Amino acid sequence: MQNRILRRIENLGSCVWMVLLLTCIANFGARAQTFKIIPGPSKIGLNEYYTVTLTARNAEPDNYSNFPNIPGFSKAGTSSSSSMRSINGQVSNETSIIQNYRPEKEGVYKLPPFQMTVNGTVLKSPGATITVGPPVEPKNTDPFGSNPFAYDPFEDFFGGSRASELKNSKADAIFSIQTDKTDIWAGEGLNVTISFLVSEDNAAELEFYNLGEQLAGLIKKTKPSNCWEENFGIEEIVPRKLKVGKKNYTEYRFYQGTWYPLVAKNFSIPSMRWEMIQYKSGPASGFFGSNRKEEIKTFYSKPLNIKVKELPPHPMKGNISVGQFALETVLDRSRAGLNQGVAMDLAIKGEGNISYIPEPQKEKNDLLDIYPPNTRQNIRRAGGKVTGEKVFSYLLVPRETGKIDLQKSFFWVYFNTVKSRYDTLRPDGLLQVQEGKKSSTKSAVSSEDAFFGMIDKAGKTLLGEEKDNPELQLWVNLSLGFMALITLILSFWKRSV
To answer: How many CA atoms lie within 13 A of 6 on its CB side?
Structure first.
């Protein structure tokens, strides 16, 4: 009797400490903060971009130093992406800032060793060797994919409908607030840029004045409070050449973002002021040098009126996404036994407010048990667009044999801004459920396999993560040591009894 009790205590202790270890891995793995610098590919074509990526895991890179300069390359702006995972209530996230470099000509170039500081942490990179070859054929890319060098409508926006307003300006410098459209639906993205343009004929010496303070105040005054913002995160102002009418300008872009009005309420971006320092030289130079004077020069932007239209009536109107989306279905198997779990991912990808994408709706279905999903999302801000995907990972357990049409189990409604109407997306595929016995023994074996499969998966994840995460490794070692101590105590107790 005592031996049976001891065996139960040992088994219970093993399960408890295994669960404790998994909990430690989940909790501390999710919270640990890490930063990395990731160089781009070693070989690119002349018509491709080289990248240096700064990633921050479970932290926001609020303050980071400039990306390095690369001889033979010019900086071509930044893009950013963010991802989030929610697994059994444990949330982890990762943010990436990508600096793009445009090669000037073919050849072999050196990115010297460099370091960057992010949130007070110093990161070092050994550098890289980059081979720039002939131009390559552009690859066919998913319109909702991760191509960070897609066409940016703001690159030549000044040659469009508003060019006449700008080219008639008497000044040789322009303060500009631009949007890609002025008529949108509630929930639709509005791309906004704020920049300063200097004509190549400009003779005055200009310098930025309190840029950060002015920009923060300007955004606060212009962005409506009922708008969700996806900021492109411009940290370094990179001059770029463009044409306004027939005149050449250098653009200094210091803000780009996408605003999503959450309610159907029109708003205006008034004419805003922007101050620059302008230097003037006196009529004559004295013994101590030129009579250089400094004054504040004020520039004004053009006002904009944005019309926000209310969505048409619909039963789900208050809980749908607005934009352009597609749905992809991934099943880990197409055939399963009765009561055998099947993993399914429903990935909603497209252009729009990815953070706001709601979970797909479930149809009433007596054929399947559907368990609440884990979620993950990836958001990319590049090419003047906000794109990405949100993935819902379900566990399906069939209750009846035969063919189960997944289209009759889930649906997702959104408002299509291209068609100006509601669309419904449904998953693809059939699940073939084979005959099987509904035995409790089989269910127990399946549960046990799933449990130890989870342990094996967690162990593999741990081995991969603890190399880069000293904090996680410390906590795991402490947990293992504590488990060993408890096992030793139980062993001595068993002998004494």
So the answer is: 13
Are 275 and 210 in contact, with CB atoms under 8 Å apart? yes
Query: How is 261-284 classified by DSSP, letter by letter?
Result: ESS---EEE---EEEEEEEEEEEE
**Is 154 in a helix, a strand, or coil?**
coil
**What confidence score (pLDDT) does residue 467 get?**
44
| The most confident of 41-50, 77-86, 243-252, 467-476, by mean pLDDT | 41-50
- Distance from C-alpha of 352 to C-alpha of 188, rounded to nearest angstrom: 7
- Distance, in Å, from the CA atom of 278 to the CA atom of 292, rounded to the nearest integer, reads 10
Specify the DSSP element, H or E, that contains 22. Answer: helix 2-31
The pLDDT of residue 207: 87
Asked if residue 99 has pLDDT above 80, the reply is yes
Most confident of 292-301, 364-373, 407-416: 407-416
Q: Could you tell me the two tokens for 406?
A: 């997944």
List of domains in the chain: 1-32+439-497 (no CATH), 38-140 (2.60.40), 150-310 (no CATH), 323-436 (2.60.40)
Q: Is 321 helix (H, G, I), strand (E, B) or coil?
A: strand
**Dist CA 255 CA 235 (whole Å):** 9
Q: Is the dihedral of CA 221, 225, 227, 233 positive or negative?
A: positive
Average pLDDT over residues 370-376: 93
Q: What percent of the chain has pLDDT over 70?
A: 72
How distant, in Å, are the alpha carbons of 143, 198, 252, 253, 421 from that of 239?
Answer: 28, 10, 5, 7, 40
Q: Is 258 helix (H, G, I), strand (E, B) or coil?
A: strand
Least confident of 134-143, 285-294, 426-435, 474-483: 285-294
Does position 347 have pLDDT exceeding 50, yes or no? yes
The answer, yes or no, to whether residue 465 has pLDDT greater than 80, is: no
* Residues 6 or more apart whose Cβ sits within 8 Å of residue 106: 46, 132, 133, 134
Residues with Cβ < 8 Å from 57, sequence gap 6 or more? Answer: 32, 33, 34, 35, 36, 92, 93, 94
Q: What SS3 class is residue 456?
A: helix
10 Å CB burial of residue 465 (0-12, 13-18, 19+) is middle
pLDDT at residue 478 tops 70: no
Helix (H) or strand (E) holding 13: helix 2-31
Give the gyration radius of the chain's Cα atoms.
29
Residue burial 75-103, b: 16+ Cβ < 10 Å; e: rest: bbbbbbbbbbbbeeeeebbbbbbbbbbeb
